[in-house]
Amino acid sequence: MKDQLFELPSPFLLESGEELPGAHVAFRTWGRLNEARDNVVWVCHALTANADVLAWWPGLFGPGCFFDPADWFIVCANVLGSCYGSTGPTDTNPATGRPYYQAFPLLTIRDLAAAHEALRQDLGLTRIHTLIGGSLGGQQALEWAVQQPEVFEHLVVIATNARHSAWGIAFNEAQRLAIAADPSYQAGQPDGGDEGLRAARAVALLSYRGYEAYASSQTDPDDSRLLGHRASSYQRYQGDKLVARFNAYSYVALSHSMDSHHLGRGRGDIATALSGIRARTLLLGITSDVLFPLSEQQELARHIPGVMYAELDSRYGHDGFLLETAGITHFLELFYVPTFAH
């Protein structure tokens, strides 16, 4: 299946006041709308993911899974700023005829949600049965549910927050510093920042997993080893994997987007913003998550009306939102029991 492209209204006005001319959003769909047009599931992806949700969220989306395309009309759109088909930093700036690179305008989580809202309207989807996302995708889903409370019937958010924390921003800044220290990033070239991106990924992994996850999977079985430790190889391997599929310019842009997340900005406060959500909400935290700790999920639960709150007991840390699909499915089944038999 290939991406479809949606051309945004041009110029697309951003929260910062800047404009993004000639922008487009890449998206994919699976399944079919039923006659009542009430079987739409919209997925918001995380930082380095793409529109192919069946590939990166297996076990939750796909044939035989809870969200089976045989039953649901599934939509997943790539965010602006990414390098997976939507307009991003390596695209051509119409004003200069050259790629944006570091000059790409600031995108906030509100901008990401607004772009997908324009797509929703273009697709003629007046109601969304379920809006789901984790991490940055959860931030976008919350923002969108606040912006358009009458559109979404159900909201499922996992390992996310109402405002990006100082802890999370510090992790992101450490990663951006690693990228900025790579001379090729400053030179502005297609593969600029690759070495910095490798280092940034190594930093990020420390926040995605945690002590127990590394201890259980990356401890060396050979006590005599002095160099070439398994944990070192793992960091390098994961850095190589990301460099092969992503770029430093999008990584910097979207990490800034994550830092911008604040549901209370211009709305009085966070509690007021969350109290306006009308969707039935399932909120899942992960017990071992050090990046989006349970305290952030509990803050959300205090203010979203009628929320169902649960915790996934996982040793995988923040990455549990991608890996613990059996646990997520269990809570989805409990969540949907009052409304229909799946």
UniProtKB/TrEMBL annotation:
Keyword entries, A-Z: Acyltransferase, Amino-acid biosynthesis, Cytoplasm, Methionine biosynthesis, Transferase
Family matches, as Gene3D superfamilies: alpha/beta hydrolase (3.40.50.1820)
DNA-binding listed as a keyword: no
EC number, UniProt record: 2.3.1.31
All copies of domain AB hydrolase-1, residue ranges: 40-323
Active-site residue numbers: S135, D289, H318
Pfam family for this entry, one: Abhydrolase_1
Subcellular location: Cytoplasm
Source organism, top-level taxon: Bacteria
Reactions catalysed: L-homoserine + acetyl-CoA = O-acetyl-L-homoserine + CoA
Positions that bind substrate: R201, D319
Record carries keyword Thylakoid: no
Pathway: Amino-acid biosynthesis; L-methionine biosynthesis via de novo pathway; O-acetyl-L-homoserine from L-homoserine: step 1/1
Role this protein plays: Transfers an acetyl group from acetyl-CoA to L-homoserine, forming acetyl-L-homoserine.
Family stated for the protein in its record: Belongs to the AB hydrolase superfamily. MetX family.
PANTHER family: HOMOSERINE O-ACETYLTRANSFERASE (PTHR32268:SF11)
Assembly: Homodimer.
Family annotation (NCBIfam families): homoserO_Ac_trn, PRK00175.1
Protein name: Homoserine O-acetyltransferase
Biological source species: Hymenobacter saemangeumensis
Lineage of producing organism: Bacteria, Pseudomonadati, Bacteroidota, Cytophagia, Cytophagales
